[in-house]
Amino acid sequence: MKKPKVDIAALPAATARELDDRLQMATPLRRVFNKVFPDHWSFLLGEIALYSFVVLLLTGTFLALFFDPSMREVVYQGSYTPLRGITMSQAYNSALNLSFDVRGGLIMRQMHHWAALLFMAAIVVHMLRVFFTGAFRKPRELNWIIGLSLFWLGFTEGFAGYSLPDDALSGTGLRIADAIMLSIPVIGTWASSSLFGGEFPGQEILPRLYIVHVLLVPGIILALIAVHMGLLVKQKHTQWPGPGRTNSNVVGIRMFPAFSVKAGGFFMICFAMIALLAGLFQINPIWLFGPYKAAVVSAGSQPDWYVMFLDGSTRLMPPWEIRVWGYTVPPLFWPTVVLPGLLTMLPMFYPFLEARFTKDKAAHHLLQRPRDVPTRTSVGAMAVAFYIVLTLSGGNDIIADKFHISLNAMTWAGRIGLLIVPPFAYWMTNRICLGLQQHDREVLAHGVETGIIKRLPDGKFIEVHQPLAAPDSHGHTELDYAGWVVPKKMNRVGALKPTLRGFFFPVEERVDTPELPAGESREEITSGRH
Amino acid sequence: MSAHTDETHFDVEDPRLTRFDLVQEGARRDGVEIVHYEPRFPVPGTRRERRAVRSISLLFLLAGLLGVAFVVAYIAWPWQYKMGSGLDKLYTPVLGVTMGLSLTCIGFGLIAWGKKLLPEEIAVQERHDGPSDAAEARLTGETIVNMGDELGLKRRPLLGMAALAGMLPLGAVIGIPLVGGLIRNPHKGPDGGPLMFTAWSPNPELINANLSEPEFIHVGPVVNGFPLVGMVREDGSKIRPEDVSIGGQITVFPAIYNKAGIFVGNSNDFADSPTLLMHLRDEDAAVLRANLANVPLNQVGNTVDGKPAPNTWGNFVAYSKICTHAGCPASLYEQQTNRLLCPCHQSQFNIVDNALPIFGPATRRLPMLPLTVVDGFFYAAGDYQVPIGPGFWERP
Hints:
heterodimer, A: two-stranded antiparallel sheet, B: extended
C-alpha cells in the first residue's frame, strides 16, 4: 500500500477542520479573538493580582512537596548550624529544610511570600480604582462583591500561610488569633477549642490550617476568580469617556494579537518583579526568629502589611471590658471581630446604598473621574484615611522607636487621629474635587494659561489664555465638559515640537518649522480682547 | 444592524477580497467594527523599522542568555549553607536576578512588539446590554412556572410538606459529619476544662487531662498529698532566691518531666504556664505589700504551715507571663518604672500594684502565682487563682 503523503503546510488547517467537525468552535473562537479591550493603565491593576496568583499557585505547589505541617517535636539536624540540636516542631524543621537543604527552595519560599504581598496589594489598589471611578455601579455590583470576598479570602489565606512555618512570629500570630476567637461572646471558647482541638496550641492547628491554606481557600479563590473573569467577559469592560465612546460600546483593541501580546508581556514583568524581589530582598527569615515558644516574643513583631490595620485597631482599642451577669465581653472583640465585620458589610452594600441615595437605577459602562463625584470620592478618602491611621498604628512601636516618640503618645495620637483624620480627609477631598471641577470648567471656558504676561495700554497686566475651541459665530469659545481630562498646559495642545526618536542618534529626519505660504500671515497669541 | 444584512451578501469565496477584508467581516459578525487600522511601517525595511526589530530581537536574545545563566547558576553555583560568609549566600540573589532579568527582557520584548510593530488599531464593540428581550423573558418565566405545575405542588400540598420534612434532616446528615468531628467541648475534663487551670496546679490529673494514659509528672516535696511544683529555668535547672539579682526578673517554667525523665515544662504543651519571677527592690516591695492588702484575690491560695500567707515571698513576686489581652508573652520589663510591657499591643502593667493594667487595651491584672521556698529553692504554692491569659465569655 502506498504511504499517504503528509502535507506539513496543510496540517494546521486540517487539524482545525477536524476539531471543528467535532466541536463547532469556529464562531465562538473568533468571538474570543475579536473581543475588544479598552486600554488604560488603571485597568492593569487587577491583572497584577491575577498574575501574582498564578505565581502563588506555581511556587506553592513546589513548597507543598517539601513542607510537612506536623507539630510533632523533633530535633533539628539540618545544615543551618546555629539551630542544630534545638527541639522544634516538624513544621518548622521542614520549613528550615526548605530554606537550606532543598536546592532553590529559599527563592521559591521568598517568591511565594513576595507574590502573596503583591497579590494583596494589587487587590487593594484595584479595588480603590474600581471604587473611585464608579466601576462597581449597576450592572457590576455582583463582581464588586466577589472582588471584596477575594480580598478577605486572600487575607485568610495569607494569615494561614504566615502561621504554617511555626516560627516565633507564626506562633505569636496564632496565639492572638486564638485570643480573638476566645473573645467572641457565647461561642468563643467552643470555636477556639474546636479549631485547635483543645487548648492552645495543641497538636491539630497546623495540619488543619495546612488543608485550609493549600486546598480549601485556594480552591474558593480560584473558583471566584473564574466567576470574576467570566462576569467581566459577559458584561464587558468599563471605559473612560472619550471620542466615540458611549455607554453602549467598548472602544479599544482586539484581544488577539495586540491585547494578549501586551498582557503576556505584562505578566512576564510581574513575574520578573516577584523574582527580583525574592532574589534581592530577604523576606520572613524564619531561621532568625527561632521556633515558637509560648514564653518568647521579640519587640517589633509585625504581621504582614495587610493584617497591620487589624493589629492597629487592636492597639488603639481602649480597655473597655463588658461584664454582665457573670459573663465577659473582652475589649479584643470589638476591633478584631466587629470591625472586620463592618468593613465587610459596608463596602458590600455600598453600590446599593449609593444607587438608593442618588436614585440612580441605570446601567453604567462609562467611568467617572473621581473629581466629578465629590461625595463618593470623599467617602472613599475617609475610608482610606481610617485605614492608614490603623495601619500606621499597627507599627506604632516601630515609629515610636525610630523617631524617639513616646509609645503612649503614639497610641493616643492613633486614638484621636482615628476620630478626626477621616472627617478631615472627607472635607479636604470634597474641597479638592470641587476646586478641580471648577478649574476644568474655567479652562474650557477661557482656555489654557499660556504663561505669557501681557501689559495693556492702561498699564494693567493680564495673562494670555489660549482658547481650546475656535470661536463660534458669536465669538464664544466655551466647550462643554465631556467627563475626561481637560488639557491644561500648552504642551498638551501641541505647543512643543514632537521630540525626535532615537537614543544615541536621531533615526528620523529633522523637520524644520514649515515656512508660511506666501501671502499668509499669522497673528501672535493674544488675549483676544483687542 | 448592517452586520446582519451584509452577512447575506458577503461571499467569503470572492477572490477579490483580501485577507483583511475577511478579518473585518468576521469582526463585524461578532459585533466589532475595526474603525481604524494602520500598519506601523507602511513602507517595509525603513531604518526605523529595522531598528525596532533589532532592539526587540536583542531583548529576546538577552532573555535567552539570562535564562541559560539561570540554569548554569542553578546547577553549578555552590548552594549548600555554610557558616560565615561565602558564595552560597549569593545563591538566591543570583537565581533571582537571572530569572528576574530574563523575564523582564521577555516582558519588555513582548510589549515592545505589541506597541511598536503590531498595526495601530481602534476597534469598537457593541455592548448588547440590558435585560433580555421581553418575549424571551416571558417564555422563560412561564417555563419555570410550568415546572411547578408539572410537579403539582399546589394540588398536592402533602407531597411538598413530606418532601421538605424528608430533605431537611438529609441536609443535616450532610452537614453534621463535616462539622461534628471538629467540635470539642472547652469545659470537658477535670476542674472545668483546660482554660481554667495551668500546669502550676500540683494535681497530676490536670496536666495529663488530655492524654489516654499519664505521661507527665511533677517532682517536688509533697504538701497536702500533692507534690509542690518546682519553678525552673528554661533548661530545667532549679532557682534559688539568690540567683535573681535585685530588680531582676527571670522567666520560670513548671518542673514537669515526661515518663523518660526529660524536662518538658518549657514545651508548648504547657503554653499557659510561663511565669515571670521578679526580685523587687526593698522600696518597691513595700509598695507592693501595701497594695496587696487592697486586692483580696491575690492574698488567698498560699498557705505556710497551714495558715494563709501572702502570695509573695520576701521581695519576690511572680506573675503570669501570658498577657490578659491577647495572650502574647508580656515580657518587656522596664525596671526603673516597674512597668511590664507586652510587645504585641503595648499593654502596660504596674508590677508594684498587682500588675494592674495602666495603659493599652488590656483590662485585667496579670494573675499572681503564689510563691514559696522549700530547702532553698522556689516552688509554686498552688495554681493561679483565676484563669490566665485572654478573656472569654464564661470566664468566672
